[in-house]
Amino acid sequence: MSDPDTTTPSPSPSRTDEHHRLRRSLGFRDLVVYGLLFIAPMAPVGIFGTLDARSHGAVALVYVVATVAMAFTAFSYAQMVRVVPQAGSVFAYARVGLGKGAGFVAGWMAMLDYVLIPAVAYLFSGIAMNALVPAVPRWVWTALAVVVTTLLNLWGVRAAALVGFLVLAMEIVVLLVFVVSAIVVLARDGAARGPLSPLTDDGTQGPFTLSAVLGAVSVAVLSYLGFDAIATFAEEVTGGAEKVARALLCCLALAGALFVAQTYLVALLEPATSARLAARPEQQGSAFYDAVDASVGGWLHDLVAASKAIGAAFAALAGQAAAGRLLFAMGRDHRLPRVLSRTDAGVPRVALVCAAVITLIAAGWAARRSDGLDRLVSVVDIGALTAFTLLHASVVGYFGRRQSERSWWRHVLMPVVGAAITVAVIVAASGVAQVVGAVWLVVGVLVLVGQRGRARPLE
Hints:
By secondary structure, this protein is mainly alpha-helical. The chain contains 16 helices and no strands.
């Protein structure tokens, strides 16, 4: 049952015919744009209150620690994309580092992340737009966001990247408006909390505890999910895999800086203490908006809300594009139906449409349920974290067989620490998410066993 092909990458895309090949047209900026779009520059807005309550007010410190924690995963991605520059990302890396079976499992678990994260983003966009225009049901806004971004992805990765850049620029401008406004208010009126409290604690829930910060980190790392999508564009970048590796690390560093800055400032503006937020969980979801509304004004509240609505839709655009590339790679490797690997003018349109349909069904279902958002959010993270764990194992597996290339700190220590972090976050996840992840894993294993049974006579 062992996999014979564990030392060499799957067939190079250059040896495939033109109908199963992606077009190289992306530069370094395009890769960073896709990564930041997927993450969203103001990702902490929705979970600020939860993190503030859990960390006893040390919310900025939480994001410092979370950025360092995710840096281990980014580092492992950078190691593998240099040796396996393929569209399949973690699917291709695990296939080469651990074997075909592990590669399929990694890709299968990543599908849970790549397909459902866009659904969450679409739904969030629909909810936000419904709040601004209540006359239009949120499922209509959700479906409209899916259609518009799918058409952009079908147009081509270059066009989608250009539109994505414009949307990202808008989000950055709104974030800068918030930062400047917050600084003006703080200089004029002073802070509601101590200047160091976002990096220590606000003192309302007892003395500082590392366990409280680490408990919040297990939630905060979910803000970063999506930067890894950069690796799925490895076959569409000009200039080689080194550019992809640099884009991964750059994207994570930029996101971390943005997250720390905005949470530090809003924590200083937050009139409610962390103890009050902990005692009143219903106020946690709107804590960021409430702080902005009370200190700066309703106009900035509305501006941030509109930016989040538009930004969420285009975060889903980047996620849908990544999901399409993953389906494309697994189809090309005969792990999914071969038709998914077909391209038209270098665009994997069949895979993109398939990803869009699945996402639309999930988002549409959730949009019609009062608890739909909570149900989706509870399961999307397990797939990514499992795939990250297999990524770290792939680094050890690939370089462990190459003593002349192996570096103990880059190829053993770093990925082992990274795997320990992702496993710890999985253990800290909700029971519902763990059950859904386990069921999805079992289904994947059954599919893999079925594939091996059918393929055996041909081997």
